[in-house]
Structure formats: structure tokens, C-alpha cells
Amino acid sequence: MIDGKGPYHFVLDTGASITVITPELxxxxxxxxxxSGQVTGSAAVxxxxxxxxxxxxxxxxxxxxxxxxxxxxxxxxxxxDYGTIDGILxxxxxxxxxxxxxxxxxxxxxxxxxVYRSPPRADRVWADLSDDTPVVEARADDISGAxxxxxxxx
Length: 154
Fold this sequence. Notes:
Elements: E1 10-12, E2 19-21, H1 23-28, E3 35-40, E4 44-57, E5 60-69, H2 74-77, E6 87-89, H3 91-94, E7 98-102, E8 107-111, E9 135-140, E10 143-148
């Protein structure tokens, strides 16, 4: 939900430093970009910026969420029978929570950090968040290194 309207469909993207809405959602929800800037992904794109008064996912709610209006590619926004994707939940929303992603059960849990307790049998791993994307030390096929945890990257 955005500013009490919705619901809308968002991708949870731990690799996105800011929350994104599509121009189509901005039109439907009568949201105006008040500033401008540039975001960089696979290419640099000029964007309109705004601050959403309120974003709510389930019971998780954040006020004053920095957001950009960006056209997203059709292969992301059109999801067949599921419908369309209206935006991306990025770090400007996610940073307010301890986020648990249970891939086995298709479940994301947003918990205020001051009450978060890790699930039983969970492996706790230190993550560097200095660039707004979680980076962990890991090993894959006997190669050690720093790995980004990016839930928006297929």
C-alpha cells in the first residue's frame, strides 16, 4: 500500500538502493515527482524523485520513503496471469527492518530490528551494508570472496 492506496505489486530487491515506482503507478496513484536525479543500473537513467508519505507491506510500515519514478522493462513488469509489477521495494524501505527471506515457503518477514530474534537453526552471517546492498564473505566451488545478496537479480 502506498499512501493508503493499493494494494500494488512490488519486487523485493535487496540490491536496489532506493524504492522505485513505475510511471504507470505514479499516474494511477496521482503521485508527482518533485525532484530529479539519475540512477545507474545496466545504464544511467534520468528519474523523477519523490518521498512517499507512507509505504506498508502487510503490517510493516515506513513513513517518508525516498522513491524514484523509473520506467521498468516489460520482462520485469509483465508477469502473465499474476499481473503487473508496479515497482521495486529497495533499501529506502528495507533498511527499517530485519528482513528474513524464506525461499522454501515463499515468505518475507519484516521485523523491527529492536525486536528481531533469528529463527532456530538459522545461520547468522555478518553482512556489510555500506553500499546499501548486503555483501557477505562466502565460498562457491572452492572460490572465496565477497558476494552481493541481490534478491532482484534473477
